[in-house]
Specification:
The protein is built from 15 helices and 4 strands. By secondary structure, the chain is mainly alpha-helical. It has a 4-stranded mixed beta sheet, sandwiched between helices. Helix 4 links the parallel strand 1 and strand 2.
Length: 370
């Protein structure tokens, strides 16, 4: 192997990428706007949910229930008639429709346990799941306070002093921003290296390379370092400018140590991209393979849900994936300020997995050339 061949071929890959406008837009979007919007959105939180109330009782208790719904969890309730309830739900105007029956207050004071009807638009699954519990809790609290003639909370026998470590504000952006950077590193590194190889095959330039005095190892190594360098530079910009700058996420650990882990992660994922490109015969097939690979890597790596909540078999299998070790490493460094003495097992695992994937990809690449 000649280092000059690897360098020149890598520069060729960078020039080819510079002429691909769509891939450049994807890189910029994935490490800037996508991370910012995904981190500041509230997909799992009940926020500004539209609710309508049919008040057939018109009593102090029913008005008390109506006044209990207010932002940010709910929009101000809209008072409607029973005839409008189904029409508005069918049109998608309301997520929740609460129907307070006639003589509701009288039945409550008489101890008859009346029922309130709650209609939920279950097509809005996230809001429907969490909102139903919110509404039940609000109505129960207001009815209990009305019956007792005062609002009070029971004094617990044990006073718990809660302290949230590493994220005192319980701000989702602090967690989501770093996880989105990790997902973007994995996704873009696989896409760029895979498309670089498939583009060579579709344009017929891979045959031109084979008649030159270069080896398959040099061709593959050039694609790995060039595409890895692009993603490495983009992730460095994202973690320092977008995460620390625009999102104002405090980073306690060493950015340099995190970037070392990112470099090892890129070594593994770029090799994986080469392997998938050799398996796929065309770009559409490569896209389908990405769906089968990226989803398990992102969902089962511990970035979305803790690994401890998964079955032990899944935890054991996912130890073979580089994402699992990279997520553990990133959370330890960036959230808890861990040093090299804590994360060296993850660094070693990433290096070993990267070397294994590189060897398998190189063997597959050589076989595909033959």
């Amino acid at each position: 192997m000649r280092a000059s061949h690897v360098w020149d071929l890598g520069i060729k890959e960078l020039r080819g990428l510079a002429r691909d406008v769509m891939l450049l837009i994807l890189i910029v979007h994935s490490f800037t706007l996508s991370i910012y919007t995904a981190s500041t959105a509230l997909p799992e939180t009940l926020n500004q949910a539209p609710i309508a109330i049919v008040d057939e009782d018109q009593s102090p208790l029913s008005r008390r229930i109506v006044d209990a719904f207010y932002p940010p969890h709910f929009l101000p309730p809209r008072l409607i008639t029973p005839a409008e309830m189904d029409q508005r739900m069918d049109a998608g105007f309301d997520t929740f429709a609460l129907n307070i029956p006639p003589d509701f207050q009288r039945d409550v004071l008489a101890g008859r346990s009346p029922a309130i009807q709650l209609n939920v638009d279950a097509t809005r699954m996230t809001q429907a799941f969490s909102g139903s519990g919110y509404i039940q809790s609000i109505v129960t609290s207001e009815v209990s306070a009305f019956v007792q003639r005062y609002r009070a909370t029971a004094t617990p026998p044990v006073d718990l002093a809660l302290r949230a470590r590493f994220n005192p504000e319980l701000n989702k952006a602090w967690f989501g921003s770093v996880m989105n950077v990790i997902n973007s590193i994995t996704m873009l590194s696989i896409i760029l290296t895979g498309t670089a190889l498939i583009r060579e095959r579709e344009h017929g330039t891979i045959e031109h390379l084979l008649v030159m005095p270069v080896t398959p190892f040099e061709i593959m190594a050039s694609k790995v370092w060039s595409m890895g360098l692009v993603v490495f530079a983009a992730s460095t910009f994202s973690i320092t400018v977008v995460v620390q700058g625009f999102l104002a996420v405090p980073i306690d650990g060493s950015i340099a140590l995190f970037l070392l882990g990112a470099a090892l992660q890129l070594f593994a994922t770029t090799s994986m991209g080469i392997f998938l490109a050799t398996v796929a015969g065309s770009m559409p097939q490569f896209g389908l393979l990405l769906m089968l690979v990226l989803l398990p890597l992102q969902v089962l790596s511990g970035g979305s849900t803790p690994r401890e909540s998964m079955p032990e078999l899944v935890q054991t299998i996912m130890l073979a994936a580089p994402n699992t070790h990279f997520v553990m490493l990133a959370q330890s460094i960036l959230y808890r300020g861990a040093g090299f003495e804590v994360v060296w097992p993850q660094l070693l695992a990433l290096a070993a997995i990267g070397m294994l994937l590189f060897g398998l990809s190189l063997a597959r690449f050589r076989r595909s050339l033959k």
